[in-house]
Amino acid sequence: MLRRAEIHREVGDTDAEFADLDRVVATAKSKEWAFAQRGYAHLLAGRHERAIADFDKALEHDPSYGYALVARGRSLGHLQRYEEALTVLDRALELAPDSSVALVARAKVRRQLGDLTGELADLDAVVGASPDEAGYLTLRGEAHRRAGRHEQAIADYGRAIELSPDDGWALGRRGQSLHALGRLDDALSDLTRAARLKPAKAWIAVQRGVTLHELGHLPEALEELDRAITLDPQSTWAYRSRGRLHLTLDNPDLALADVRTLLSLEDRPGARELLRAPGLQDADDAPQLRTRCNP
């Protein structure tokens, strides 16, 4: 019955999936296992309140059921109930200190709480236990990158890429760290590979477009930033970047069009930044646009 529910999930038949899971709960001898399985299905479907209710029922039957504790912590994190999530995940790790799943879940909660030291401590433990797991290295690299520790990030991404050469995410993020260090040619190489592997990721296209701009490859940069906006029409980063490029190309009218879009997306800081550029300060409608930047 559980396998049939999983097949229904794979084909997108949610009603049939949960009908089968309800039968699993009704008939299973191990109630903690059954409730946890249905709870996890709710978690995957983004129904986190329902997931927590099922995990709570599982834990009523077995308060030390690690699987339910970790999954409950994950759902609490999705609901931004971070302190509660941390408490649950701490309990899971008291029961199983070496649980990589629990450590990664807690690291993600600590990231949301701004606890970089705690996040890295958890990820160090995970990588130490599984040094050849590319996914864990990428997670730690991402923590270093967000903290501005780009050399450490590049080292982790590099090892992850050695283990998984077609990891477009790691290539893209290493490209960002290389860009931050001014290693533009190396960054472009990584970002070009990443764009081939993950052509639908707008953030890769934006970063690649920005790098092409800084390297002076202006037509290619414009093409890539246009592609990024097609992929994600809500990306304010893309419009900011394309607006700067239009100014470099001496196209102030097109830059102003990007300013208007930024204002429609309520990115007033981005619009103000572009309007400060010499090429836009004397534009006919610049005063009106500046007023819209400061409501």
From TrEMBL:
Keywords: Repeat, TPR repeat. Pfam families: TPR_16. TPR repeats lie at residues 32-65, 66-99, 134-167, 202-235. InterPro entries: TPR-like_helical_dom_sf, TPR_rpt, Ycf3. This is Tetratricopeptide repeat protein. It comes from Streptomyces albipurpureus. The lineage of its organism: Bacteria, Bacillati, Actinomycetota, Actinomycetes, Kitasatosporales.
